[in-house]
Structure prediction request, 393 residues.
Amino acid sequence: MSGGAQVMWDEAVSGYDFGPGHPMDPVRLTLTMRLVEAYGLDRAPELKVVRAPAAGASTLCLVHRQDYIDAVVRVSADPASADGSYGLGTPDDPAFAGIHEASALIAGQSVAAAEAVWRGDVLHGVNFSGGLHHAMPGSASGFCIYNDPALAIARLLELGAERVAYVDVDVHHGDGVETAFWNDPRVLTISLHEHPGTLFPGTGWPQESGGPDAEGTAVNVALPPGTGDGGWLRALHGVVPELLEAFSPQVLVTQHGADTHAEDPLAHLAVSVDAQRSAAEACHGWAHQLAGGRWLALGGGGYAVVDVVPRSWTHLVGIAAGAPVDPRSEVPETWRQAVYARTGQVAAPMRMTDGREPLWKVWGESGYDPADPLDQAVLATRRAVFPSHGLLP
Prediction:
């Protein structure tokens, strides 16, 4: 097995565009790649930039129903025909010309990265244009048309993987990936998200723990609104590493939605870029400690498209490339100029940090506070799934 990493990039992924005013602005993708380039990460010795073809019908059928794929193809050719069927043509998922091609292209990048990691071409693969975790087998949902994380995992299973772990730190529940592998004991899905009582999609309760043949393989941590860096990282470290160690995955797939950030307009957590970077570092470490170094890292949500997303995902790329970006470093002026050229925004971030030092109380060392909603959430998850893995809650 070789080392190194590859980041998947094709300028055409910016064609995944639901139109003016939609929160899923593809400028967040192009600005991320421009920031990666501004830091010279695309020229890092351990990183190569790779472009892959769109996922074909046989690949899409690993997760999605043929009738749904056919519907996406029809709407792609004639957006005016979308009437809400299959979730297409809704406010969340408006139809646009080329929607099938753009969605399949993003899926193709994630699948190709998974293949490269499994073959041993590289240890780490990154597709920050991916992470579209809400798409269901038979419908679009939550800005997501094809579920590239689920497709990548399904391809890994097809190639012979026996245990794949998926960790999702997007502010929204990773419901589509959980659904795809609900009753498959080969896949452990862990989702750390805002409480379903206060945020879309309204699922992801700790009691949702897997089907009859896979009890304990769906893991949900439902965080109270307002959770900040310390609580978020306490929950992450209080649930994920013990489960990964017990499950012993051959590959770790992670989804790094940046919408946990305090400035994100669609959710209610209060996490910083610094904590998001810390979570990416933790996932990188778990991949090496527990999955032979095999790591596929994906993007996801994130709607503060200038101030947050590019910085968070550039940190992710740097970590995967073995060339982490110093959070204290000044953002290159060339990137700030690119922001102005693309968006007209003058006040782009000046540094790669929000000025926070991510610290958290370690679960099991600091004691449990029964009056703390965060601790209640972590304990609820541990009680729901840990015994299925032979672990004490």
